[in-house]
């Protein structure tokens, strides 16, 4: 969430983190150097769900070895307190005890945060003076990242006539989402709950790898007795118990994952009575009639395992849902695709020019172009027909390769010396 972005040529961005046991990233705020922290306290209280007169303290990390964090004077200007462009500011309720704010210090000790510092000149140059032409999009939470294949909803609905999302990509996405949820849930001292897991919040890159966005946002703006925004779009994926208890737990995410598996990745059917329809199909051995045809020839055993897992995840009672790390992952892990050995001339060396083909796999440019020039119209990895012969540079992989080679060169230089 961004507050009053780019309101002045002198605006400086700061990142705000709420220290409440979950250490939630609240968002970035652009403020004038001449303004005071006290000017933004009402907004910070609102986002944290505090009452209008809750007393809060703000802290800045000024040294990292050893950690030194100082309290921010809310009545002094940002410029006079020497808080600079890109700094991280944490805040919390004022403790009732005479403690020296140990929670703040522990946070900085165990959560090393790296922030890129961009000058206003660079920001203006990159955005053509913050022109709306360069704006990717908006949600109720602000802008998020753009990826070549949009989000999972785009891929399923084949927005812009994109190629169908094939079964092995779907299985890989399920596995990746499961891994990401395990990472959030393993946070200490308290598990982080995504709370708004839907296809539109699963972003897909050029290689059909996935990223989660908007985690932890579902309850960020939620006050007791109120509903989150876009309720009708959220409802098919929302934990039923949340609607009565207004409490999110890791098992809330498990329900959402099950709904995505059944409704979007496996069947593509409307949410109404989807669990009953899948259960009936499994009982009558007719699951193949429900499986989304555009996914290709999904191995029946794998599809059956996913259907059974999805049904367990969407149980109405949280107590009956499987644990993500011990039960769900045991089913999903064996489904992760291990690329088969290609039956075409390939390069065993590190890629010089990685290119993504229409099958979603990355190849060395010379090898895949030779494959296509010989008249092959099928994927060398899956043997399925390629929807087109377009190639997209895998810049992320190329950047990683270059960084790796540089590290190897530096390491070799140290050994030689």
Please, could you describe this protein's structure?
Pathway: Protein modification; protein ubiquitination. It comes from Setaria italica. This is RING-type E3 ubiquitin transferase. The structure is a single chain. Helix content is 33%, strand content 12%. The chain is an alpha+beta fold. It folds into three domains: 2-126, Roll (Ubiquitin-like (UB roll)); 152-335, Orthogonal Bundle (Transferase(Phosphotransferase), domain 1); 354-416, Zinc/RING finger domain, C3HC4 (zinc finger) (Herpes Virus-1, 2-Layer Sandwich), CATH 3.30.40.10. Helix 5 (167-185) runs antiparallel to helix 8, helix 8 (250-266) runs antiparallel to helix 10 and helix 9 (274-283) packs across helix 10.
Topology:
Layout: E1 2-3, E2 12-18, E3 24-31, H1 41-48, E4 56-64, E5 67-71, E6 88-93, H2 102-110, H3 120-127, H4 152-157, H5 167-185, E7 202-204, E8 210-212, H6 231-234, H7 242-245, H8 250-266, H9 274-283, H10 300-313, H11 324-332, E9 354-356, E10 362-364, H12 365-373, E11 392-393, H13 395-416
Helix pairs in contact: 5-8, 5-11, 8-10, 9-10
């Amino acid at each position: 969430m961004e507050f009053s972005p780019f309101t002045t040529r002198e605006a400086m961005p700061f990142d705000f983190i709420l220290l409440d046991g979950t250490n939630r990233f609240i968002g970035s705020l652009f403020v004038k150097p001449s303004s005071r922290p006290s000017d933004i306290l009402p907004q910070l209280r609102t986002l944290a769900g505090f009452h209008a007169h809750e007393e809060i303290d703000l802290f800045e990390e000024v040294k990292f070895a050893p950690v030194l964090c100082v309290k921010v004077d809310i009545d002094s200007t940002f410029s006079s307190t020497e808080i600079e462009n890109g700094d991280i500011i944490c805040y919390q309720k004022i403790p009732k005890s005479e403690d020296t704010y140990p929670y703040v210090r522990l946070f900085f000790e165990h959560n090393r945060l790296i922030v890129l510092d961009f000058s206003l000149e660079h920001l203006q140059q990159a955005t053509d003076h913050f022109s709306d032409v360069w704006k990717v999009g908006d949600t109720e939470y602000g802008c998020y990242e753009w990826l070549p294949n949009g989000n999972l909803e785009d891929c399923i609905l084949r927005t812009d006539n994109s190629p169908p999302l094939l079964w092995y990509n779907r299985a890989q996405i399920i596995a990746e989402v499961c891994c990401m949820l395990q990472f959030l849930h393993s946070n200490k001292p308290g598990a982080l709950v995504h709370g708004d897991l839907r296809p539109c919040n699963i972003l897909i890159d050029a290689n059909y790898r996935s990223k989660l966005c908007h985690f932890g946002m579902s309850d960020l703006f939620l006050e007791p007795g109120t509903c989150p925004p876009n309720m009708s779009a959220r409802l098919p994926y929302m934990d039923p118990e949340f609607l009565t208890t207004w409490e999110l737990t890791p098992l809330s995410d498990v329900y959402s994952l099950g709904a995505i598996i059944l409704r979007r990745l496996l069947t593509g059917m409307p949410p109404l009575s989807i669990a009953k329809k899948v259960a009936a199909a499994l009982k009558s051995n007719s699951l193949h009639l429900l499986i989304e045809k555009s996914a290709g020839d999904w191995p029946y055993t794998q599809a059956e395992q996913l259907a059974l897992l999805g049904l367990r995840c969407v149980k109405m009672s949280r107590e009956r849902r499987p644990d993500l790390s011990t039960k769900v992952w045991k089913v999903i892990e064996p489904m992760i695709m291990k690329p088969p050995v290609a039956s075409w001339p390939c390069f065993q060396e590190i890629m010089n020019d990685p290119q993504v083909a229409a099958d979603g796999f990355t190849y060395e440019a010379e090898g895949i172009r030779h494959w296509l020039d010989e008249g092959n119209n099928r994927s060398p990895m899956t043997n399925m027909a390629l929807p087109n012969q377009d190639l997209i540079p895998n810049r992320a992989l190329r950047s990683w390769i270059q960084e790796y080679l540089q590290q190897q060169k530096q390491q070799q230089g140290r050994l030689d010396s």
